[in-house]
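WARN retry 2 of 3 for item q-0093 after timeout on previous attempt; input resubmitted unchanged.
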Amino acid sequence: MEVQPVWKSSKNPETTLAENVGLDFASGLNPAHDSYAVTVVDRILKAAVAANVTDIHFELNRDQTLLLWRIDGTLIDLGSVPNGRSTSILNRIKALARLVTYRTDIPQEGRLIVPEYQLEARVGTLPTLHGERAVIRLASGRRKLRALHELGLPAATLELTLQAVHSASGVILICGPAGSGKTTTAYACLRELANDDTTSRSLVTLEDPIEIELPGVAQSQINPAAGYDWASGLKALLRQDPEVMLVGEIRDAATAAVVFDAAVTGQLVISTMHARSAADAVRRLQDMGIPTQQLLSGLNLLTCQRLLRSACACQHTASQPTDLRACPTCGGSGYNGRFLLSEVLPKVEKDLARALMADANSKQIESIAASSGMLPLLQQATEACDAGQTTTAELKRHFTQ
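OK item q-0093 returned
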């Protein structure tokens, strides 16, 4: 089957899946045949790899399976494919991920590996009102392991990040919403240390799940079903004589406390956290009970980032909407790839330290940080929009609350 990138929604009559994209996963197949589900899933996975998809959504709906997938952070409706009469598309996915196929009443998680497509992915299933749904996260195994200088960070931000990474201790915290590339940046920090020939350091991680295998790093994945949760995992990690720890995500006060305690006792800790801005992140740490004094002494670097879609060249040359649909580069989406924005919280001292001591809110913290040299994400995005690097619609998508 010829595989083409898919960008447009099948809900638009002008951009139906079969007619305008030329991609029909069930074409020429008999739903009654025993191999039907195997072939359909194989075609979907192959097409997703070719189109650089990060997530595939499957949802049962009577005699059809609804399909959507995510490219450059945007969820795209692909329409549906018929269900097999004797074989199930969702059961095929569950079998590949070594999940229990007959259990449709509980959520399940697993790992899917297809060597021929160089594909390693996470699979999660969920029982819903009208049937089971599944999401395959393809980004992990196929994601290129990037170095810090390959991320597109501004020169000043890159320099500060390298300084923090090569520190003996402290916390490096990378923040942002879901899908902003936090894990990629965290891995790049760890890779910088793993590839450093001038020194040898004990590098360990605790993740949920392990996204990419990192040579030279001892990686551990939590398993709540076996009693190996974040609390027990963090305790075990500290007994491994670590010099550098990567804690996949700070989700609660207990994890935050362990991270900052480790930092002030001599470890370098790299972690991520969900937050809309650097100011929101530092405010959230305070709400989790991290003393301001620990923020002053333990926080080496706090960044917040976003990935915005880059405007395709056709956005600037098209005179009518039909010209966009004809663009071979973006397939009519108007976007081609993404670029990184990153704001860096200034060192917590002077006015910023006094504001945190006085229990300032996020807006007050951001104002003081900006006056101390931080370039806020919104300002960076606005400048990128004015320069034609992205669009007003993309700016509103990320920054309208």
